[in-house]
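Reading a protein record of the kind used here takes only a little practice. Think of the row as the fold of the chain written in a discrete alphabet. With that in mind, consider the following protein and its fold in token form:
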Amino acid sequence: MTLVGRPAPAFHSKSDIAYTEVRERILTGDLRPDSVISQAKLATELGLSTTPLREALRRLAAEGLVVLGSHRDARVVPVDSEGARSLYEVRSALDPRACALAAARRTDADIEAIDAALSELEPLTGQGSQSALDAHRRFHRSIYDASRNPVLIDFLESLWDRTDLYRLETLRSWTPDDEGRARVHSEHKGLRDAVAAGDPVLAETRAAAHITGSLGRRAIGLLATDSSSPASVDDEA
């Protein structure tokens, strides 16, 4: 079993199994935002009792992927323009800082890892390929790792979990064109070069520019449009 966006853990309990399976279903879109999670049905599908499943849902609620209600109800966290905006604001503050630290602290081994992740990047399409999203995440994680700040890395990992819901929603209604995909590739390469060059200021600047065109930011306008809010994609791009 593969844990989306992260290495598969060594399972120690039935709760771990339930956590990994539910988390993967959420991040791959099998369980859509705001959908109700039938604990009895899901427990049967997983061949588990509801006790480890409830423990798993509490972990997912702490990560911001699930909302727990009364009477043991649970649902996938809904997505909306305000949620997208909040995530964008946090990422725009933390991500550039991590990239600056990476440029200051990277080693030759870090650059090799970043280059390997860069070579595996796939174009994002309207189908919302999970492998493409995972490759995108691995590239950014390879840079975060070079920051040598485990607290910052942990915050950014949690942020990616939540933002992936918005990336998937964006790709369901919008497809990057060839020009857009070329721009993103150029930005990734430029970010890699800034980190490899050991230039914290340039790395921070390029990371901030990259985030302004990200799927997470684009989701602000798309979801606002869906809800008849006055904001638009152009307002947020």
User: Anything to note?
Assistant: Residues 81-105 form the longest helix (25 residues). The CA atoms of residues 42 and 224 lie 32 Å apart. Strands lie at 66-68, 74-76.
